[in-house]
């Protein structure tokens, strides 16, 4: 829970974040100097065209990839200064992950999948919190089922519960509804939003889907590795309008203020 921290303090920040893959003529500047604060107890969506750097930004923030320069800070910890052991510990104990492909262990039950991160970290299960999370995702009567016996939506809800059960500082979700129909997507996104409202969770989600993005408090837009747009309290219509205006003006010329007058790139 996050109640003891001031609401204004971001849960994660990037400053001058640059990521270059490869070198020489074939070097790709996937992130080209990103400055952003991710709000504590907020749900932030990241959008942008294919190849714009969304996954790279998320991976650098989550310690899954190392920036070339600049800083990525999560809960006051500079990710770039951590060694592999520290990064593994951070990911295991302070971060939650949800991927498009569910990534459940097929031989384990739903309950065993949910508690797996705690079991690996040898952290005792907080029964009351586990019950609250299981109930919130609506899986109480499915806990003994294996992933193969669950629908895609139910499997992703297991993955959501697994990401939340250790009370992470941030849940990073990469296209969490990419494999789901619209009904299941709505359930998963509604749950993620409620985890923010009811459990004080902070969520950062990459998505291509304007409807999915509209569940967030805020949507960031990337193009060519730069932050080019930023809107608060999105609706599918405002997200689509912003995407349209960025397409018209071109990413190199669209300042965040043009995309939305309502918030700045570093507002949380
Ligand atoms: N491991 C890598 N090696 C080389 N180039 C990479 C690597 N990972 C990403 N890139 C390149 O960096 C750029 C940004 O990629 P990234 O995956 O972050 O974009 P994205 O916005 O998440 O795209 P998508 O929506 O298609 O998933 C792309 O040009 C991509 O080809």
UniProtKB/TrEMBL annotation:
The protein's UniProt keywords, in alphabetical order, are: ATP-binding, Nucleotide-binding, Transport
Give the span(s) annotated as Disordered. 248-268
InterPro entries per UniProt: AAA+_ATPase (IPR003593), ABC_transporter-like_ATP-bd (IPR003439), ABC_transpr_LolD-like (IPR015854), MacB-like_ATP-bd (IPR017911), P-loop_NTPase (IPR027417)
Listed Low complexity bias regions: 254-268
ATP-binding: present as a keyword of the record? Answer: yes
Question: Which PROSITE patterns does the record match to this protein?
Answer: ABC_TRANSPORTER_2
A Pfam family cross-referenced in the UniProt record is ABC_tran
Instruction: List the record's Gene Ontology CC terms alphabetically.
Output: membrane protein complex; plasma membrane
Report the residue ranges that make up the ABC transporter domain in this protein: 12-249
Example GO molecular function: transmembrane transporter activity
| Protein name as annotated | Methionine ABC transporter ATP-binding protein
